[in-house]
Every structure is written in C-alpha cells, then in structure tokens.
Design a protein that fits this description.
It contains six helices and ten strands, in the order αβαβαααββββββββα. By secondary structure, it is an alpha+beta fold. Bound molecules: 2-oxoglutaric acid (AKG). 2-oxoglutaric acid binds next to strand 3, strand 5, strand 9 and strand 10.
C-alpha cells in the first residue's frame, strides 16, 4: 500500500462523495480476491435481483471475504473517512463481459460507505465506474434514479470517469450517484465491492435494502 494523505482523502470524500486511492490493494491480494470470487461464480449461489453479472453475499460462501470485509486495509481508511467504524453488510463481485451489462445511474443507500476495487484495468471502453461529483449533497435532485432504468448523465458537468488499474480502490458515499457503461472491449471487466453501514443500528435494514440495489 502506498502513503495516503488522509486529510486530503477525507476532503475529497466529503466534498466529492468519492475518493480513488491508487495501488491500494497489492497484486497478490487482487489475484486472491479474483481467484476466490471466480470459484464462487462458477457455482453461483446468490444473484442480484436484476443482474446476472452481479454476485452478492460472497462472505456467506467463503470466510476469506468475511475476514476481508472486517479486517482488510480498507477498514482503517473508511473509519477515518466516515468518522466512525464501518459495519460490514455484504461483499459482491461485479463482472462485465458483455455490452448489455450496464448499471444505470443510481445511488445505493443512505448511510455508510462503499468500496470498489478494480480487478482488471477499467476505462471508458470497458465500462468503468462514473460518478457525479458532489451528488451526495443533492440527494433530492437525483432521487428519481434507479439502477435498472436508463438515464443518460454522461454529459453532466460534474461527471468523473473512474479510470482505474488493478488494485486501485474507490471509496464512495452510498448516496453518490454512480453507474457503469457497456463493455466494448471483448475482455472481462471485474470489480470487487464491499458495502458498509456507518451505524450498527441500521445494519439489518441496510442488509435488506442492499439486496435490491446494484
Ligand atoms: O461494477 C459495476 O459495474 C457497478 C458497481 C456499482 O454499482 C456499485 O459498486 O455499487
């Protein structure tokens, strides 16, 4: 892991609703996450309600993911960013092999934080994540968005393309509007995500909510 300027990262997280930290997860761990997730995918246990390319609940199948959610290097950073220890809800694997596997603009939940780790290089061509900077502060304006409904925000003035390399991580507020476009590359684009709530009292409720979100 590289040196992290936590006060700058917190400023970005608070003002923009997300922050990308480069080379955060080392190459060995990226490989291990991918290897274990691919084993789970091969035997598919739990699907997202609407997406066949999103596999949730990895931690229910392999304790490695439970441990990673609870004790991975992201926990200390997220604690700083949220100002409170994050409570893990679930971990998911997002594969994107086809052009049809888009996730439309949406926000995830109200409380807590989300992390997304790039397993493959990701860019505009293969459907990288996009964020609307500052949208977590304008919840009402974006409350109409649903991940299964197309809404073109690609020319929004505050859009940011999260171009990432394997091991880069993005921390974001669940209320920050985000989406990922089609994959035109012909190669898989994979990402690993963990969702945390910031308040243990919300854990049950957020678990239910997350089942229905991308
Ligand atoms: O990886 C993707 O394509 C979408 C990720 C996403 O929507 C999320 O992590 O909440």
């Amino acid at each position: 892991m590289v040196d992290i300027d936590i006060s700058y990262s917190k400023k970005r997280f608070d003002e923009d609703g997300f922050v990308i930290l480069r080379h955060f997860i080392d190459a060995e761990q990226v490989k291990e996450i991918c290897r274990r997730a691919e084993i789970i995918l091969a035997t598919r246990t739990e699907y997202s309600d609407r997406y066949t390319n999103i596999t949730k609940g990895l931690e229910k199948v392999d304790d490695y993911f439970e441990d990673l959610m609870r004790r991975g290097p992201q926990v200390a950073i997220l604690t700083e960013l949220l100002g409170t220890p994050p409570v893990p809800i679930t971990s998911s694997f997002f594969t994107k092999n086809k052009t049809s596997e888009e996730v439309n603009p949406h926000s995830d939940a109200i409380y807590g934080g989300v992390i997304w780790v790039a397993i493959d290089p990701t860019n505009r061509e293969n459907g990288c994540l996009h964020f609307i900077k500052g949208s977590h502060l304008k919840e009402e304006e974006f409350s109409y968005l649903r991940p299964h409904e197309p809404n073109d925000l690609s020319s929004h003035p505050d859009v940011v393309e999260a171009i990432m390399e394997p091991g880069d991580i993005v921390f974001f507020r669940p209320t920050t509007v985000h989406w990922s476009g089609p994959n035109h590359s012909g190669l898989p684009r994979r990402g690993f995500n963990c969702f945390y709530t910031g308040d243990p009292r919300n854990a049950g409720q957020e678990k239910e909510l997350w089942k229905h979100l991308a």
